[in-house]
Design goal:
This protein is of the alpha/beta class. The chain folds into 2 domains: about 120 residues, Carbamate kinase; about 80 residues, Carbamate kinase (3-Layer(aba) Sandwich). Helix content is about 40%, strand content about 20%. The chain contains 8 helices and 11 strands. A 9-stranded mixed beta sheet has the order 4-3-5-2-1-6-10-11-9, with helices on both faces. A two-stranded antiparallel ribbon has the order 7-8. The chain is globular, with a radius of gyration of 17 Å. The mean pLDDT is about 95.
């Protein structure tokens, strides 16, 4: 196996499937099945999932709401998605732990780094909810921060496209895909892999980011087995 400990970043929007809102149970089951397969291989898995299928802080600003208030609402949305994923994973037979950056004693453990690492060492799938627990930070930044804290080998960012392109492949059929790119090149070319705070955290702590198509069944397993799928961003020697 190429990776022993991974952090899987999923967008909330990916859970919508073909719906315009909420959670598509077929997609949820698909993700849970793929995570289960990888966990059975002995890979330690942590997950961060966004909340954009339910609520985004930007929506709050558009409605005239305070940004901080809206961001906390977004964090609660990530917890709904995290609980849904937890339930789906446990249906496959996996043991999971949901850790929240905001105190929610009835539904999740508080985030404590040592506890998170211990859960991973015991082969429990760990889901990190509520972002960083602070407004003005995205779930991309939460994923980068947690990956650094748990010393993950890589961040696997599941998206709707099969990697990073020099233009939007959904709009430009002539867009060229990168197989590998350095953090510096990605920044210079404004490739927008993650938001700048998350991107800088990964660069400074040498945590590579692999962008891949999460909806292609089997991709997650193939990546862990060492196949070259998607686009990797890393500090080149």
């Amino acid at each position: 196996m190429r990776y022993k400990r991974i952090l899987l970043k999923l967008s909330g929007e990916s859970l919508m499937g073909s719906q315009s809102f909420g959670i598509d149970n077929k997609i949820l089951k698909q993700y849970a099945t793929e995570i289960h397969e990888v966990a059975q291989m002995g890979v330690q898995i942590a997950v961060v999932i966004g909340g954009g299928n339910i609520f985004r802080g930007v929506q709050a600003e558009e409605a005239g709401m305070d940004r901080t208030h809206g961001d906390y609402m977004g964090m609660l949305a990530t917890m709904i998605n995290s609980m849904a994923l937890q339930a789906a994973l446990e249906k496959t037979g996996l043991t999971t732990r949901l850790l929240s950056a905001i105190a929610m004693d009835q539904i999740a453990e508080p985030f404590i780094r040592r506890r998170a690492v211990r859960h991973l060492e015991k082969n429990r799938v760990v889901i990190f909810g509520a972002g960083t627990g602070n407004p003005y930070f995205t779930t991309d930044t939460a994923a980068a921060l947690r990956a650094v804290e748990i010393e993950a080998d890589i961040i696997l960012k599941g998206t709707r496209v099969d990697g990073i392109y020099d233009a939007d492949p959904e709009k430009n059929p002539n867009a060229v895909k990168y197989e590998s790119v350095s953090f510096t090149e990605a920044y210079q070319k404004d490739l927008r892999v993650m938001d700048l705070t998350a991107f800088t955290l990964c660069k400074e702590n040498s945590v590579p980011i692999l962008v891949f198509d999460i909806n292609q069944v089997g991709n997650l397993k193939r990546i862990v087995q060492g196949e070259n799928i998607g686009t990797i961003v890393h500090n080149k020697d």
